[in-house]
């Protein structure tokens, strides 16, 4: 007969242990183990008869390629991040902070797909049907092909799916779903894992696209076991300040496309609006003639985006200077300040430094190194850089300016936005010819680039 016993699961990675442990040996996190009951079957229960045919392995040359037709969601920014649309039979996890717009985005996807003739099922475990309708009325009119269901029991949900067989399903959210065969409470490691496994089988066997909404922890990762992200086909993160109007959709895993693309949205009373010209949106309100302000060009996949970097350098009032970075890597800022002091002679060791990427976007690309260094030098000298200048390039520890990828796309984006000068690595400048309307200045060292910030 089945016996009940308790085991301990790590809430971060799903590691299982017979006893409580202070630190997880798998992910090295502290105080993440929780106790959950499980069922242990006897030997008689383990012996089950195999039904159906036995699967035979096949040579890779015998397998025919099936180019699955992607389904457009009707939202161009989302389709770009997904790699051209949704793939039938895929499982897509959408995570983000509370109130960031996950449910609004997926409700708009349901509206567009149902209007295009696809049957859509929106399953909510957090809101009532009336609450969903009130939220949907702000977005627009919905087709009758979209059905709503408020349910948390996975057996009842699976029965409804088999009966209606929709083309797309939205689960909002996975932390509210419960499998009656698992005795732990909804949102626990066991429940999240088993619920996702059930939805994965539904997606693959019935060829249905399934969107899953996942809550995030205070560290910004999807709540629940790490195995959840390994089970799904695509993991999307919705980023941004909930009090601001912008939103950034980023893929951290995608089996059917690139993970470098981003989608930019603006939150309005009618829902999320796509931002086609992200560069103009990010540079809106940029001050001209202010010291410590530099425009850089970052590549997000195949998409060049112009961003403004601001740096404020002031003499410290204490013995320990303070350094702060928003949107950029804090350690990278400290490294660049050390290179500036050693290679260019700027005395920054007794200065407080505050570096900010406006627009709230986070960028870790090395190509913004030169822009950050010039912004810091400009702020230290209190000399403004020409507002019609765009800067990009990687900076090494020796003060050299190294080449970056896709330089031509970056320069063309700067020219399209009306900038007149582009300071780039000399190795990239020697390969760029035929770009009209913009002056290209190639620099090989940080000292040479700093000379454009004035004396």
Topology:
Elements: E1 3-10, E2 16-17, E3 33-40, H1 43-46, H2 76-82, E4 91-96, H3 102-115, E5 120-124, H4 129-139, E6 146-150, H5 154-164, E7 168-172, H6 189-206, E8 209-214, H7 227-231, E9 234-239, E10 246-254, E11 262-268, E12 271-274, H8 278-282, E13 293-300, E14 303-315, E15 323-326, H9 330-344, E16 351-357, H10 369-381, E17 389-391, E18 394-395, E19 401-402, H11 407-416, E20 421-425, H12 426-429, E21 439-443, H13 446-450
Parallel strand pairs: 4-8, 4-9, 5-6, 5-7, 7-8, 13-17, 15-16, 17-20, 20-21
Antiparallel strand pairs: 1-2, 1-3, 9-10, 10-11, 11-12, 13-14, 14-16, 18-19
Lateral strand order in the biggest sheet:
6-5-7-8-4-9-10-11-12
The CATH homologous superfamily of the largest domain is named: P-loop containing nucleotide triphosphate hydrolases
Can you summarize the main beta sheet?
9 strands, mixed
Mean pLDDT: 87
Structure annotation, total helices: 13
What does this structure look like?
The chain folds into three domains: 3-42; 71-276, 3-Layer(aba) Sandwich (Rossmann fold), CATH 3.40.50; 281-453, Ribosomal Protein S5, domain 2 (2-Layer Sandwich), CATH 3.30.230. The protein is α/β, with parallel strands linked by helices. Mean pLDDT is 87; it is low at 43-49. The relative contact order is 0.09. A hairpin with a 2-residue loop joins β13 and β14. The strands form four sheets. A nine-stranded mixed sheet has the order 6-5-7-8-4-9-10-11-12. The protein has a seven-stranded mixed sheet with strand order 15-16-14-13-17-20-21. Strands 2-1-3 form a three-stranded antiparallel sheet, with no helix packed on it. It has 13 helices and 21 strands.
């Amino acid at each position: 007969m089945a016996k009940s016993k308790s085991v301990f699961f790590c809430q971060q990675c799903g590691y299982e242990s017979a006893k409580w442990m202070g630190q997880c040996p798998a992910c090295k996190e502290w105080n993440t183990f929780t106790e959950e009951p499980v069922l242990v079957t006897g030997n008689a229960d383990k012996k089950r008869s195999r039904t159906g045919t036995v699967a035979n392995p096949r040579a890779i040359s015998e397998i025919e390629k099936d180019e699955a037709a992607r389904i457009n969601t009707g939202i161009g920014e989302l389709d770009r991040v997904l790699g051209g649309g949704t793939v039938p039979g895929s499982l897509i996890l959408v995570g983000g902070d509370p109130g960031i717009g996950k449910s609004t985005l997926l409700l708009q996807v349901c509206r567009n797909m149902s209007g295009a003739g696809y049957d859509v099922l929106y399953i909510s475990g957090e809101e009532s049907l009336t609450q969903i309708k009130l939220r949907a009325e702000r977005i627009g009119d919905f087709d009758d092909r979209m059905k709503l269901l408020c349910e948390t029991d996975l057996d009842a949900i699976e029965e409804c799916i088999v009966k209606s067989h929709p083309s797309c399903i939205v689960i909002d959210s996975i932390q509210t779903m419960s499998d009656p065969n698992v005795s732990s409470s909804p949102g626990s490691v066991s429940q999240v894992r088993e619920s996702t496994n059930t939805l994965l089988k539904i997606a693959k066997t019935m060829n249905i696209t399934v969107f899953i909404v996942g809550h995030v922890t205070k560290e910004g990762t999807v709540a629940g076991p790490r195995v959840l992200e390994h089970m799904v086909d695509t993991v999307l993160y919705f980023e941004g300040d909930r009090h601001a109007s912008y939103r950034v959709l980023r893929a951290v895993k995608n089996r059917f496309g690139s993970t470098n693309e981003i989608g930019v949205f603006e939150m309005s009373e009618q829902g999320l609006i796509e931002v086609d010209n992200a560069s103009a949106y990010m540079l809106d309100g940029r001050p001209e003639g202010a010291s410590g302000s530099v425009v850089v060009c970052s590549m997000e996949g195949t998409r060049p985006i112009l961003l403004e970097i601001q740096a404020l350098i002031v003499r410290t009032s204490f013995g320990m200077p303070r350094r702060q970075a928003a949107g950029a890597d804090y350690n990278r800022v400290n490294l660049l300040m050390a290179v500036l002091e050693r290679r260019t002679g700027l005395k920054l060791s007794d200065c407080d430094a505050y570096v900010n990427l406006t627009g709230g976007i986070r960028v870790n690309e090395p190509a913004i190194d030169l822009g950050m260094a010039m912004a810091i030098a400009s702020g230290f000298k209190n000399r403004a850089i020409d507002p019609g200048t765009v800067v990009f390039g990687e900076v090494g520890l020796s003060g050299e300016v190294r080449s970056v990828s896709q330089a031509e796309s970056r320069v063309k984006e700067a020219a399209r936005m009306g900038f007149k000068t582009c300071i780039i690595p000399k190795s990239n400048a020697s390969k760029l010819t035929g770009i009209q309307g913009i002056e290209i200045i190639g620099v090989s060292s940080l000292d040479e680039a700093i000379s454009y910030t004035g004396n």
